Amino acid sequence: MSGRADDARVRVVILGAGIVGLATAVRLLGEGHEVTLVERDEPGAATSRGNAAGIAWTDVAPLASPGIWRKAPGWLLDPLGPLSLRLSHLPAFLPWMTRFLAASRPSAWRSSISAIAALNALALPAWERMWSETGTGHRVRREGCLDVFDKPGEVVAARPGWDLQREHGIEVVEMTGAAMRDMEPDLGPGIAGGAFIPGWAHVDDPFELARDLAGHARARGARFVQAQAEGLVPSEGGVTVRLADGETLAAEKVVVACGAWSRKLTRALGEDVPLDTERGYNITVPEPGVSFRRFIMLAGYGFVLSPIAPGLRIGGAVEFAGLEAAPNWKRVDALVARAGRVVPGLRAEEGTRWMGFRPSLPDSLPVISVSGRTPHVIHAFGHAHHGLTQAAATGEIVAGLIAGRPAPIDLSPYSIGRF
Ligand SMILES: Cc1cc2nc3c(=O)[nH]c(=O)nc-3n(C[C@H](O)[C@H](O)[C@H](O)COP(=O)(O)OP(=O)(O)OC[C@H]3O[C@@H](n4cnc5c(N)ncnc54)[C@H](O)[C@@H]3O)c2cc1C
């Protein structure tokens, strides 16, 4: 991964400066390429800004699992539940839903798990290299994560999931509620038990990390163009990017990293993907009246507590409502009410509310793939719940595709051609 000779220097345009585009830019600059980022907003200011900050490489389960079709209809119709659907989005959502149900078949589910685990196994080592290269290691908290349940039956139901993690070499330590409260005394007395996952890490602020990577990229010569990319036109030996203001950019390679908005660009190339968005909500409370060292997951309630520099971030939930509908902030009130049941001392009246657009494909796998239409476009989007986690690994894979190096893992599960 050292600098390259001038004849191997490639002119790359990256569309989208979220955490995936930025991590890819840092990696490509590290390999001596010429990098331009096209971003319509401030780098890192979309989905990568307000997420829960987890380097969640220990998660291996996709959203689609066998039997989910029995539970999903009830969840989807509860507008404040952990998984909901706005009826106005139903027609656009049906193709995604159909593929989601197909992805929940046992064999497809097992394939998704293997592919998530393979990518996540690269995730933390890739971040370690990027934190060290960019001097951002001070942002990492290596405190692990508590997977907490307040009903004994939920602990029993969670065990197969923990076994699945163990099968992939992830350390999971089952604990009683009392032992969890010893570790995190602000958890309420009703906790039945759960597990400690020591390998989990989180960062102190995902937006600040993104800004650090943008600053690093700028200092190493990356050019940032603030513009909306409208289309891609393959040309002899490269690609022309059309911008909304009528300008064009010529590149030898283009990386599509526009997160939940990437479909418009793949369609411009004649490649469609069933990309939808799983909208998620949270509130960051600067003075929550409680304190946690570790990341706390409350799967039974569908939210997490993430102790980060700006405060306690309480959030989660999945809402299918597309890219245009206004946020339903009642979802945040519902999250806070649920959090109060598990953390009785929580004070969450004052805080910053946020909604983000997870870029989601039905099998919970991103697209990290050379385009089927031209070898000069590489897709890197659709990381759903794991975009922060998988960003540095994605950057390394994209850099490998550009350099023509053998991939560290089988890339066929992430191919755009799988749809
Ligand atoms: C509530 C919530 C909690 C989450 N928690 C975690 C977590 O703990 N750990 C984790 O790993 N992941 C988490 N995620 C997921 C993670 O935030 C996303 O997967 C990740 O941010 C996606 O990064 P991205 O760079 O692909 O997309 P984005 O950050 O959305 O970046 C895409 C960029 O492309 C730009 N863009 C789009 N279209 C165009 C265009 N046509 N021209 C120019 N620019 C364009 C946008 O402005 C944007 O800046 C969470 C998400 C949510 C919503």
List the helices and strands and how they pair.
Blueprint (H helix, E strand, L loop, with lengths): L10 E5 L3 H12 L3 E6 L14 E2 L12 H9 L6 E3 L4 H14 L2 H29 L5 E2 L3 E5 L2 H16 L5 E4 H7 L9 E5 L3 E3 L2 H14 L3 E4 L2 E7 L2 E6 L4 E4 L1 E4 L6 H6 L7 E10 L9 E4 L4 E6 L2 E10 L9 H13 L9 E9 L6 E4 L6 E5 L5 H17 L16
Parallel strand pairs: 1-2, 1-14, 2-10, 4-18, 6-16, 14-21
Antiparallel strand pairs: 3-9, 5-9, 6-8, 7-8, 11-12, 12-13, 15-18, 15-19, 16-17, 17-18, 20-21
The structure holds flavin-adenine dinucleotide (FAD).
Flavin-adenine dinucleotide binds next to helix 1, strand 2, strand 15, strand 19 and helix 10.
Question: Can you describe what's shown?
Answer:
The protein is an alpha/beta fold and 419 residues long. It is built from 10 helices and 21 strands. It has helices spanning 19-30, 68-76, 90-103, 106-134, 152-167, 177-183, 206-219, 263-268, 330-342, 387-403; strands at 11-15, 34-39, 54-55, 83-85, 140-141, 145-149, 173-176, 193-197, 201-203, 223-226, 229-235, 238-243, 248-251, 253-256, 276-285, 295-298, 303-308, 311-320, 352-360, 367-370, 377-381. α1 (19-30) runs parallel beside α7 (206-219) and α1 (19-30) packs parallel to α10. The longest helix is centred in the first third of the chain and has 29 residues, at 106-134. The structure holds flavin-adenine dinucleotide. Flavin-adenine dinucleotide is lined by residues 15-21, 38-41, 45-48, 51-54, 56, 228-229, 257-261, 280, 282, 315, 356, 358-359, 381, 383-389.
